[in-house]
Amino acid sequence: MSKSTISTFELFQMFPDEEAAREYIEGRRWPDGVNCPHCGSLDNITPRKGGFYRCNPCKKDFTVRTGTIYERSHIPLHKWMYAMYILMTARKGVSSMQLAKQIGITQKSAWFMLGRLREACGNDIETLRGTVEVDEMYVGGREKNKHAHKRVSGAQGSATKTAVLGIRERGGRTKAKPVKNVSAAVIQGEIRKTIEAGSTIHTDEHASYAGLAQDYTHEIIVHAAGEYVRDDVTTNGIESVWAVMKRGLHGVYHHASPKHLHRYVNEFTFRLNDGDVKRHTMDRLNSLTEAGFGPRLTYKGLIA
Length: 304
Prior knowledge:
Helix content is 37%, strand content 14%. It is of the alpha+beta class. It has three domains: 1-21 and 70-120 and 274-304, no CATH class; 32-66, no CATH class; 131-257, Nucleotidyltransferase, domain 5 (2-Layer Sandwich). It is globular, with a radius of gyration of 22 Å. The termini are far apart. The model has no long low-confidence stretch (mean pLDDT 93).
């Protein structure tokens, strides 16, 4: 067994029950002592039974779940830990049906749990710099494979698919998000929000990238001419991200609607960035646990 990996059996030993998981999450959220998520007070907090605390200054009760993705979830915290472990170690993701079987909950609850976790994965605000590869992919079925009443007459190629823009820093992080179209205004707007001016950008010959040389060193690889690598100019790095993402969307999830696609994209990029197999399993688990310390996604919000 690799020294950077913990097995499922070892995970069960670490988190045998909800109390052990609660203590771990409290340690990640409040390393310097419990503070109130309602008013932010660090003083005069009274512990109560069952993991509850009373903030005497604001007179409100709370737990480590309050103000996180775990809030008001009836699923025990050690099952949340196992779900996060699976999500971070399954390279192509895990279906809600499979997760439901593994942790003993309903498929509907597992789907909601995964939706919350994917929402937590989308809080990366880091700016990319240096040498950065940019490319786009399209998600959606072919018109000829759809039922007749769902086909769009005259549509070809990517016309009815959802575009996803991917940006990968060499030796650094990857960001990706669905975009409403691949026009120059949309694509370059996202690039300028994400990549530091003065960086070097590698793209293919798509017309939407024309004009980037005003703010960046723009290198173009011409796929139409059979060119894929020229010295160190290539988009193979971001295309390898698409390879894994497509295999997960097709082989594990089978379908991701445009409404939920951004969350699936969040999951894959988070796993690539913070779930790098070169990091110890617990470091990866710590990253996802801490990403969950933000506003919860309600079921109504998820299906809206």
